[in-house]
Design a protein that fits this description.
The chain has 323 residues and is of the alpha/beta class. Helix content is 45%, strand content 18%. Strands 1, 2, 3, 4, 5, 6, 7, 8 and 9 form a nine-stranded mixed sheet that branches.
């Protein structure tokens, strides 16, 4: 397989047999064929590991790594160690690429402009629903971004799976294996701080499944709040004290708070909730004025800070309406 234009797609896997076939097939059926798929199985106890091996036997572009419960960061790092592509894409095992032309349309832009990073947006669908049909990315709608501060603003997009990353801008970077929450945010922040330019496709390239097993929707585990506050301190150090990056930290912090809020929705731990509300109120004026934070997110966080019970009502109403 030639490395010229090769995309290494990295999928960390743990007990994903229910979703894995849809995920892998969405990658292997891409019109653009210069792709290596690295399935990094983190000690799955279901059929996921066997399914990975079956794909490797059938498709020469599939590589499989088996490890024993090292965590998602280690699973990604082991894949990075063997990846040969000029470009990297990360896909979660329960998600799918939007259609079979995602890579072909994006690589037209990449081959012409050679950006450090390419960005696509995502759509979401609930577990059990049909995977939505979305329009393919149109290269003519893409935007070239080469102002450093504007490139850095894409850190607020948070999600690793919204980006195609050049090997040059990721060289030497790895996921922090001792960071158990937000490790992808930290990695992406480091990458985008080094990126000199970016292409925004202004299109959807990724479909995210909302399921109970996901990090955001799973129940709170002891120590997660403390780990999240620790991550914020690390992000502060990485971002430095440049005034142009203050709004980036605020947006990342609020995103982490919304994850924690979602986990604590049904919690009766008043101490944890009280501590979270304290953090929110301390940063509230900053959140309110930050244009990189969606207004509906601001509203939901305010309702939680006022009363978690009211938050639950508003959250359910907002999401039923698809706001």
């Amino acid at each position: 397989m030639e490395n010229n234009g090769l995309i290494s797609v990295i999928v960390p896997i743990y007990n994903a047999e229910k979703y894995l076939q849809r995920c892998v097939d969405s990658i292997l059926t891409q019109e653009y064929q210069s792709v290596e798929l690295i399935l990094s199985d983190d000690g799955s106890t279901d059929r996921s590991g066997k399914m990975c091996d079956e794909y490797a036997m059938r498709y020469r572009q599939v590589k499989v790594i088996h490890d024993m419960n090292g965590g998602v960061s280690k699973a990604r790092n082991r894949a990075l160690d063997v990846a040969k592509g000029e470009y990297l894409v990360f896909v979660d095992a329960d998600d799918v690429l939007a259609n079979d032309k995602v890579f072909s349309n994006c690589m037209k832009l990449v081959m012409e402009h050679h950006p450090d990073v390419l960005f696509w947006d995502c759509d979401e669908f609930a577990d059990g629903e049909e995977i939505p049909v979305v329009s393919e990315i149109n290269p003519q709608n893409a935007k070239w971004v080469d102002q450093k501060e504007e490139v850095e603003n894409y850190i607020t997009k948070v999600a690793l799976w919204r980006f195609l990353l050049s090997r040059e801008v990721t060289e030497g970077k790895r996921f922090e294996e001792d960071v158990v929450l937000g490790e992808d945010t930290l990695f992406l922040t480091q990458v985008l701080l080094d990126a000199k330019n970016l292409i925004d496709t202004n299109g959807i390239g990724y479909l995210r499944r909302l399921c109970a097993e996901s990090l955001v929707h799973s129940k709170y585990k002891p120590g997660q709040a403390e780990k999240m506050y620790e991550l914020q301190n690390v992000l502060k150090q990485v971002l430095g004290d440049k005034k142009s990056r203050v709004h980036i930290f605020e947006a990342l912090a609020l995103n982490q708070y919304t994850v924690l809020i979602q986990k604590l929705r049904k919690s009766q731990d008043k101490k944890l909730i009280r501590e979270l509300k304290k953090h929110i109120w301390q940063m509230f004026p900053c959140f309110l004025l930050n244009r990189w934070i969606h207004s509906s997110t601001k509203v939901l966080v305010v309702f939680f800070a006022l009363t978690p019970g009211l938050y639950n009502v508003v959250y359910d109403t907002v999401h039923k309406k698809g706001v």
